[in-house]
Amino acid sequence: VPTRFIRDWITSRYLDQILQTIKNYKKEIIRIEFKIIEQNSKSIIQDNNSKSFDNVENVSFIKDTYLQYNRIDPNKTFENFITGPSNKLAYEASLKVSEKISNYNPLYIYGGVGMGKTHLLNSIGYELKKNKKVMFISAERFMYQFVKSIKSNDMVKFKEYFRNTDVLLIDDIQFMNGKEAMQEEFFHTFNALLDKGSQIIVSADRPPSKLVRIQERIKSRFSGGLVVDIQTHDKELRYKIIKIKSDELKYLNSNSIEISEEIKIFISTEIKTSIRELVGALNRIVSFSRIYNKVPSLAETKVILKDLLSIPENKVTMDVIQTEVCKFFKISKNEMLSSRRSRYLVRPRQTA
Fold this sequence. Notes:
The structure is a single chain. The protein is α/β, with parallel strands linked by helices. It has helices at about 5-15, 15-25, 40-55, 90-100, 115-130, 140-150, 155-165, 180-195, 215-225, 235-250, 260-270, 275-290, 300-305, 320-330, 335, 345-350, and strands at about 105-110, 135-140, 165-170, 200-205, 225-230. It has a 5-stranded parallel sheet, sandwiched between helices. Strand 3, helix 8 (about 180-195) and strand 4 (about 200-205) form a beta-alpha-beta unit.
């Protein structure tokens, strides 16, 4: 048995029944002794799984986690990453790293939400996993595995997995903030990988200098590689994305209705926050056209996307009312707001 607790539990509850069952087959057995063996069957099974897995695919996994998070998405590649002036540098640097590792080490990519950071990391992983050992993990998953390894007293295996990889891709590094013990482990893993010539690629939502509650030595190492940013996409790139995505949807579903050029331009002009929202807006328009079997007009598009659009409302304030009334009656605002009760001021004041 793996622990003393399990031994005592079996002994107190089931020992007599087990002994009785065994005596049916071998009468001379009069006593049963349980031995505690530390290495339980679970870890043995995992070791066997790890051996068989490594033969199949050259990707290093944490085998003992319930969620296999080292999934590299085959749909997110360099081929379908749409480039423009805002993301060209990040794209070229990622492409360079996938051709020759340790060219820029580490490569640090930062940008806002939905700008394509994860897509680029996935593309690098997809290219390099053909002949390298790749580990693609989010900072949150790294932390989860770290805590799990401490709890199960299995830090040696944790270190081995992360330090024996050729390429380590970590997404959303800003989530490591404040976790001192994990940052310590990451720092040593980082150094070990650099020493053996492995490639490290990191993504975040801000530059290294702006990372909060992260050790200075880690920020310094991030800054020592190549730091590239993905800037806010311009209108041309947004239009390009909308056009390509709508063509893809049309290709996948031959029954889909062609969205008008006016709506494509409208979406790419008005939705500026992120590419995810841009694609989400397009999906809404496509769903509307499928359900009602017609292309929505511009007015209908505004209603469908009302929560995504940042079109300013015509807000009427006290100040606006006073300004308009003063303009109409040809008086100054100071006169209207004064305590004077002249006839030519009373009427505009009451009107306002």
